[in-house]
Specification:
Elements (H helix, E strand, L loop, with lengths): L1 E5 L9 H13 L6 E7 L6 E6 L2 E6 L11 H22 L3 E5 L5 H11 L3 E4 L13 H17 L2 E4 L2 H10 L5 E3 L20 E6 L8 H13 L4 E6 L5 H10 L6 E5 L6 H6 L3 E4 L8 H8 L4 E4 L4 H4 L5 E4 L4 H13 L3 H13 L4 H18 L1
Parallel strand pairs: 1-2, 1-5, 2-4, 5-6, 6-7, 7-8, 9-10, 9-12, 10-11, 12-13, 13-14
Antiparallel strand pairs: 3-4
Helix pairs in contact: 1-13, 2-3, 3-4, 6-11, 9-12
Length: 380
């Protein structure tokens, strides 16, 4: 089966979408019946080619990348245009059976055009922010690109989402679309519990892009309140983003330099050790799909304290963590205080997190994608 994929980000570029793509490739490379080409962005000014495996090739197009963790609107537009030309060029040689699009924007445009002019069926795997209304900071942009997104969805054979929340959001926009939930996965051999020495300090890990949607400011405010109550607490923010400067200012304002550190970008292979150093995982997002970081933390045996958005309902309950409303600083503060005063619950909650994570192994997720590919091919 010949498959063409469009994804503007692929490690080391981008975040969760690229990571999922990479992990699936590690499964697909062992399936000889698959022949896959991926068109993505280059991290530099040069066109690059990578032979990922005998049956998987990656074409990297220069789009003027300035930040490997974030794509500007100009870069997204440039990718869409260049990927379209590259996609048509590759199609002349391969005559692909199926196209898989990793997010409607910007990867959907070349797939849409190949569908219109070459009749190649495609599926769209939703990234979250490409759902109109998902990201508040894109409110103006949504007004411009929503018609394009809706057309890309309409022409797709199938829309793939990561959780029920995303499905419901899309259904409100177009109730007749065919939608399938395929959860994110986790490498339970790589991400696993590590032995640690108990301390008096509650150690929190928060790996996420430093943007308003992720709600790191809520956690900073909670730490400030807990410090006033002489509760020993330490937070490790892992990631980069537009709000980092503001968060650093807040840390200085509340004199939390000894309580909060910014570790910046940490390579994936080093993250298991980072989780192993923490007691709990906290993510105060205002909106989320299914957080890869949350799954990683669960696989590493950490209790998870998260907002009731995105894939939370599928991953978290009273047996492995705590859930609070987005922006509810008082609730988060109360939860963290409770855990700091009852540290004996950390181990039990963490064990249950690990058990849940074992249901999301990449091998199982890859099988769902394979069935999807076969189904689309059989109908076309």
């Amino acid at each position: 089966m010949r498959i063409l994929m469009f994804n503007n980000e692929f490690p080391p570029l981008g975040g969760g979408t690229g990571t999922v793509n990479f992990e699936l490739f590690n499964i697909f490379k062992n399936i000889t019946d698959l022949d896959i080409d991926l068109i993505t962005s280059s991290a530099n000014k040069n066109t690059e080619f990578e032979q990922f495996s005998e049956n998987i090739r990656i074409f990297k197009l220069p789009v003027g990348k300035k930040n490997i963790h974030h794509a500007s609107n100009f870069e997204l537009i440039k990718y869409a245009i260049k990927a379209t030309f590259k996609g048509f060029k590759l199609y002349k040689k391969k005559k692909y059976d199926i196209i898989l699009v990793w997010s409607a924007v910007p990867a959907g445009l070349p797939a849409l055009l190949l569908r219109i002019f070459k009749k190649v069926p495609y599926a769209v795997r939703v990234g979250g922010p490409d759902i109109p209304g998902f990201e508040k900071r894109y409110s103006f942009i949504y007004k411009i690109i929503s018609p394009i997104i809706k057309l890309i969805w309409k022409k797709a054979e199938l829309i793939i989402v990561k959780c029920r929340t995303e499905k419901n959001m899309i259904k409100k926009i177009n109730s007749i679309l065919k939608i399938k939930i395929i959860y994110n996965g986790i490498d339970t051999a790589k991400f696993k519990p590590l032995k640690k020495q108990p301390t008096d300090t509650l150690k929190i890990i928060c790996p996420a892009r430093l943007i308003k949607r992720k709600g790191q400011d809520i956690l900073i405010n909670s730490v400030s309140k807990l410090k006033k109550e002489d509760i020993k607490i330490k937070v490790d923010f892992i990631g980069e983003g537009d709000e980092k400067g503001n968060y650093v200012k807040s840390v200085k304002k509340y004199k939390l330099e000894e309580n909060i550190i910014f570790s910046g970008y940490i390579a994936g292979e080093k993250m298991p050790q980072k989780y192993g150093e923490a007691d709990i995982f906290v993510l105060a997002s205002y909106n989320e799909g299914m957080s890869n970081a949350m799954l990683e933390a669960m696989a590493c045996g950490l209790p998870v304290i998260v907002t009731d958005v995105g894939g939370t309902e599928e991953l978290v309950d009273k047996n492995n963590g705590f859930v609070f409303k987005p922006g509810d600083n008082a609730a988060l503060t109360k939860i963290l205080k409770h855990i700091s005063e009852n540290k004996e619950i950390i181990n039990k909650l963490g064990q249950n997190s690990r058990k849940k994570a074992e249901n999301f192994k990449w091998e199982n997720i890859a099988k769902e994608y394979l069935h999807l590919f076969e189904d689309i091919k059989s109908k076309n």
